[in-house]
């Protein structure tokens, strides 16, 4: 963060949630070196462990004084010295956008690259409708948004996952801009909120969050969020079935049938349509190959 090169002043607002690994001492050392730039807050007791959520929104955002806010959670990092400058310039030049984000890479604990790009074929501009339909494509350490698009509604502070709903709220004030440059890294590890947890755990947590937000926006947005909610439960069912967790798989199907009895039939129809399309494409490819062989044989034999 300190390597950032900007033509405007910026502050680094940090929340230390009663860490026990020496982070607090490091923060105090840096704050003494950069008292006009680094502003830490230290908790005596771990708030997340007490069930407190939305820690950034509770403890950091009210202390921010800038026009824009960029996020970077403790296990992630920025890689471009001009990141803040580029995003600041983008939002200044695009008043129709409330959010700006960029491409990222994914690394492990040893900084080994797991994924080179997080946003392949990402359109340069999208909307809240895309975000509600496709799910979260904005990585937390890549986002910058306008501070004026706050405060958040009270329901936000009780969510198990905060970044996606946060982006939805901000996207309600304007479009979403994308800079196709890799300017940061997301670290995948065991202790992360989603991290290396099993896919079923991630889907379960995601469905709980969607259940709480799917009626908080306009009808069109809620409709898309509701479908994403049903789809998440369905994918959780498939994952439980793959893991041979019969009881959990049965509960997922039961929940899905209660919410929308026709969802499974619509999903099956969609799946069969995709299979049919795939089979037709394979048959067409095979037919073209046979015709090419016939043509070659015809040229050689005259038949």
Write the layout of secondary structure elements.
Layout: E1 12-16, H1 23-33, E2 38-42, H2 55-60, E3 68-70, E4 77-78, H3 83-93, E5 97-107, E6 113-115, E7 125-126, H4 128-134, E8 144-146, H5 163-171, E9 175-187, H6 199-213, H7 219-242, H8 246-259, H9 263-301
Helix pairs in contact: 4-7, 6-7, 7-8
Descriptive notes:
The chain folds into two domains: 12-187, Spore Coat Polysaccharide Biosynthesis Protein SpsA, Chain A (Alpha-Beta Complex), CATH 3.90.550; 199-261, no CATH class. The protein has helices at residues 23-33, 55-60, 83-93, 128-134, 163-171, 199-213, 219-242, 246-259, 263-301; strands at 12-16, 38-42, 68-70, 77-78, 97-107, 113-115, 125-126, 144-146, 175-187. Helix content is 45%, strand content 16%. The chain is of the alpha+beta class and 303 residues long. Strands 3, 4, 5, 6, 7, 8 and 9 form a seven-stranded mixed β-sheet that branches. A two-stranded parallel sheet has the order 1-2. The chain contains nine helices and nine strands. Helix 4 runs parallel beside helix 7, helix 6 (199-213) runs antiparallel to helix 7 (219-242) and helix 7 runs antiparallel to helix 8 (246-259).
């Amino acid at each position: 963060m300190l390597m950032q090169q900007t033509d405007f002043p910026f502050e680094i607002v940090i929340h230390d949630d009663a860490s026990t690994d020496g982070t607090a001492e490091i923060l105090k050392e840096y704050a003494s070196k950069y008292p006009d730039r680094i502003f830490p807050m230290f908790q005596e007791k771990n708030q997340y462990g007490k069930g407190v959520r939305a820690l950034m929104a509770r403890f950091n955002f009210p202390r921010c004084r800038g026009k824009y806010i960029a996020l970077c959670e403790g296990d992630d990092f920025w890689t471009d010295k001009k990141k803040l400058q580029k995003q600041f310039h983008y939002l200044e030049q695009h008043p129709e956008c409330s959010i700006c984000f960029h491409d990222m890479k994914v690394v492990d604990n040893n900084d080994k690259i797991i994924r080179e790009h997080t946003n392949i074929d990402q359109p340069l501009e999208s909307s809240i409708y895309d975000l509600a339909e496709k799910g979260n494509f904005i990585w937390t350490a890549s986002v910058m948004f306008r501070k004026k698009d706050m405060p958040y509604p009270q329901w936000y502070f009780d969510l198990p996952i905060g970044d996606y709903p946060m982006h939805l709220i901000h996207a309600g004030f304007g479009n979403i801009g994308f800079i196709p440059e890799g300017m940061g890294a997301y670290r995948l590890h065991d202790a992360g909120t989603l991290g290396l947890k099993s896919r079923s755990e991630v889907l379960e947590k995601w469905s709980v969050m969607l259940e709480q937000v799917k009626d908080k926006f306009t009808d069109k947005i809620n409709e898309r969020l509701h479908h994403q909610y049903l789809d998440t439960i369905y994918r959780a069912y498939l994952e439980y079935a793959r893991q041979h967790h019969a009881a959990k798989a049965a509960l997922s199907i039961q929940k899905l049938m209660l919410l929308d009895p026709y969802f499974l039939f619509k999903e099956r129809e969609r799946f069969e349509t995709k299979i049919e399309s795939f089979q037709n494409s394979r048959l067409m490819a095979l037919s073209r190959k046979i015709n090419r062989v016939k043509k070659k044989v015809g040229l050689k034999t005259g038949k």
